[in-house]
Design brief:
single chain, about 290 residues, TIM Barrel, alpha/beta, eight-stranded parallel sheet, globular
Length: about 290
């Protein structure tokens, strides 16, 4: 049975299997990348991805299964700049969650302040499932985000990441790169992406999300171990700049992965429990401003 097999009964919507991770999750472990979808809300007309109901209440069953208590709710491109689902989820989760919004240079200051008060700590530019944002918005947004203490989160294909890495670093704001920077999805570019990720993390302003591993390997492959060497090379030097996430409800995937299997990859890559616990607890506490 391959690593993305969905055999067996599910105990959480949009997640295969019913097993728990092979290692004990530490207290205050944080899932740094998940989404909510509310079927009562309309998708933006140009939505690339759509998904059925994936509610905060449904997600809590996955939290219980994995042993996670904190989460980062990321606004999906499907809703553009309509944050109603995000704000409802943040209210439901309370102080155990933070949010990542989708904003543009036209977003009023009052709306940014409302989002910040609700627990939003960053803004996402999604250049893969294109919608409301593009990379040209990064510079005009940065000074406004910096005043709020936010960071910029980017989701980019390898070619775009390589093209934009220097301009991102020049923004002088924390940059969080989604989904392993999709490092091994284009095998010809993988060595260059690896060097660019090292450059980003060495700057002291960069972070990498170990989330959505299936997006970081070639689309025809189920072999998540293609990421082993890449993660080993960055974890050795930059473990303090790594965070982990499920990418629930796995909106890009027709066959939902086993989230325990995805969590177990972290244990394989990071064998030292104290380092793994930092990636799950203290690193996200710093980046997303959790206290306690």
């Amino acid at each position: 049975m391959d690593e993305l097999s969905t055999g067996g009964p599910t105990t959480a919507p949009h997640s295969a299997g019913n097993d728990k991770p092979s290692f004990p999750m530490p207290a205050n472990a944080c899932d740094c990348h998940m989404h909510v979808f509310d079927p009562a809300l309309p998708f933006t007309p140009n939505a690339v991805l759509t998904h059925g109901a994936a509610t905060a209440q449904q997600y809590q069953s996955l939290q219980r299964r994995l042993g996670i208590t904190r989460s980062i709710v990321v606004q999906p491109s499907s809703y553009g700049t309509d944050h109603r689902a995000l704000l409802a989820a943040l209210e439901y989760f309370g102080d155990s969650a933070r949010g990542i919004a989708v904003v543009t240079p036209d977003t009023p200051d009052a709306e940014l302040e409302q989002l910040a008060a609700a627990g939003v700590v960053g803004a996402r530019l999604n250049l893969v499932q294109r919608g409301a944002t593009d990379i040209a918005m990064a510079r005009p947004l940065t000074s406004r985000l910096r005043r709020l203490g936010w960071h910029v989160q980017v989701h980019m294909l390898p070619e775009a990441f390589l093209h934009e890495i220097d301009s991102l670093l020049a923004l002088d704001i924390d940059i969080v790169v989604d989904h392993f920077a999709r490092a091994c999805s284009n095998e010809a570019l993988a060595p260059l992406v690896g060097r660019a990720v090292h450059k980003l993390l060495a700057s002291g302003r960069g972070w990498l999300k170990l989330s959505g591993a299936y997006m970081a390997i070639p689309s025809e492959s189920n072999n998540l171990h293609r990421l082993d060497d890449f993660v080993a090379s960055i974890a050795q030097q930059f473990s303090s700049r790594l965070v982990w996430g499920t990418d629930w409800p796995h909106a890009t995937e027709v066959d939902k992965p086993n989230d325990a299997t995805l969590a177990n990859l972290l244990a394989k890559w990071i064998s030292e429990p104290s380092v793994r616990d930092a990636i799950l607890v203290s690193n996200p506490a710093q980046l997303y401003r959790f206290t306690g």
